[in-house]
Amino acid sequence: MAAPCRIAGCKTAVHVELETHELCLSHFTLQVERACNDMRVEASRGAATGERREEILRYIGQQGGLLARIATNTPRLPDEQKARILSTFLTLMNLRESLDRAAARQPHLPSSNSSPAST
Predict the structure, then answer these.
(1) 106 lies in a domain?
(2) H or E segment at 105?
(3) Is the pTM of this model over 0.90?
(4) Which residues of 10-37 are buried (b: 16+ CB within 10 A; e: fewer)?
(5) Would you say residue 100 lies in a domain?
(6) 76: left (phi over 0), alpha (psi -120 to 50) or beta
(7) How high is the pLDDT of residue 119?
(8) Which domain holds residue 44?
(9) Count of structural domains, the chain
(10) Is 13 domain-assigned?
């Protein structure tokens, strides 16, 4: 039996892939989307240095990979969970675009065309 989500009051079981986070899929995707929003704001203000940009790119790749494993390794996800995963993928993609736009505005930051999933 999977453990319940660590968020107070949530009794939803945690997917095997999310055991280290101790979050159900809904709370995990909300956490990722909040983090993406914070990073997008950081990037749009020009606060993301080259090193920070690489950290953000790794985050995008790691979270995207984790969501992909959940989506493809789970026999049958309810439509609501599929929609949450797709929405979070879109948020990750939008963060990547925001990061690239911010880098383009700052000529001293190289624009990376490398895949974040290759970390």
Answers:
(1) yes
(2) helix 79-105
(3) no
(4) eeeebbebbeebebbbebbbeebbebbe
(5) yes
(6) beta
(7) 45
(8) 25-118
(9) 1
(10) no
